[in-house]
Each structure stands twice: as structure tokens, then as C-alpha cells.
Amino acid sequence: MTKVDKNNPKKENEQPVDQVEEVTETPEETLQEEATETDKLQEMGEKLATLNDKYLRLYSEYENYRKRTNVEKADLLLNGSREMMKAILPVIDDFERALDNMKTEDEGVRLIYNKLIKILEQKGLKAMQVKGEKFDENLHEAITQVPSSSPEQKGLVIDVVEKGYYLNDKVLRYAKVVVAC
To answer: pTM for this structure?
Structure first.
């Protein structure tokens, strides 16, 4: 046995550094590593595409939600008073009947009526003008039909039993009418 030098802790059977053999890979191993790297890159690309698609769908869904809520908010502001207007319509009807049946014109009552109508019109209420127009089931409710005196009147509104109203160009109450047949 040979002695090991304390200053040089090298073992007996070790080879010097310059004599170490270089490990080389075979071409098959290199191709296999490149194939696995390509597979990994392709898999990461697919994951990226999937995540990007999910992101775009989520973003567009959020944008649609935001637009829909803005439209609903605007509609609520425009038509939020719908129920209150519907409750006032019978009072307006009674007011108009009272004005029509008064023996003497009372200027004060007429003033109050006009003021009420003007305020409601500012809030979007508008009366339908239907007498003499062609019957439209989207706007009118036929109460009865009467025979017409001429063929030109057939299908026209002859009389209005109850006025119809729009609130911001949407039908609030359908007009109840008499139609010529």
C-alpha cells in the first residue's frame, strides 16, 4: 500500500482530472430529449391557448353583464314611475268625465286638470289619439264592434271608451275602443 499524502487528499485509484473520460450521448438519446422538449412546449402552448380562451370568454361575459345592467338601470330610471302612473290614470279618467258633465265651466278645476296633465306629460305620460285610426291589437282593446255605415270605415276605431296612454313611448294602458265591422 502506498501512503496518501496529507496535503493531497487524492486516493490511490483516482485518475487525474485531465484523464477523465467525457460522457457523450447517443443520437437516439438526443432526439428523444428534443422530442420531449417539443412535446412540453406544445403542451404549454395548448395550455396557454386554453387559458387565453377562458380569459376572453370571461371578459366578454363581464362586458355583456355590464352593458345589460346599464340598460336595465336606464330603463328603470325611465319607467320606474310606471306603477304610480297606472294608479293615477283612473283619477284622470274621473277628472275628464267630471269636466265633461259640469253644467258650468269652472276655470279653477280646468286649471288644476291642465296642470296635472302637463306635469304627467313632463314625466313621460302621453295620451293615445286613436279615434278614426285603423284598429291595432298592439295598441287597442276592442270592447265591441258595430256595423259600419260605409265600407271605408270598416276596421276603424269609431269611439273610445277608455283612453290609452304611453309612458316613454311604451304602452302603459291599452285604449278600450269600439270598432266598425
So the answer is: 0.57
Q: Quote the CA–CA distance of 129 and 115 in Å, as a whole number.
A: 20
DSSP state at residue 13: T
Query: If the chain, 181 residues long, is cut into consecutive pieces of 10 residues, what is the mean pLDDT of each piece?
Result: 53 54 64 80 91 93 93 81 87 88 79 90 90 88 87 87 89 91 84
Residue 112, helix vs strand vs coil: helix
Burial code (b: 16+ CB inside 10 Å, e: under 16) for 118-133 equals eebeeebbebbebeee
- Beta-bridged to residue 144, according to DSSP, are 178
Q: Which residue has the cell 276603424?
A: 156
Quote the cell numbers at residue 40: 412540453
Nearest to 77 by CA among 16, 123, 133: 123
Q: What is the DSSP string of 66-127?
A: HHHHHHHHHHHHHHTTHHHHHHHHHHHHHHHHHHHH-SS--HHHHHHHHHHHHHHHHTTEEE
Question: One-letter amino acid identity for 181?
Answer: C
With CA atoms as reference, report the closest residue to 139 among 168, 169, 164: 164
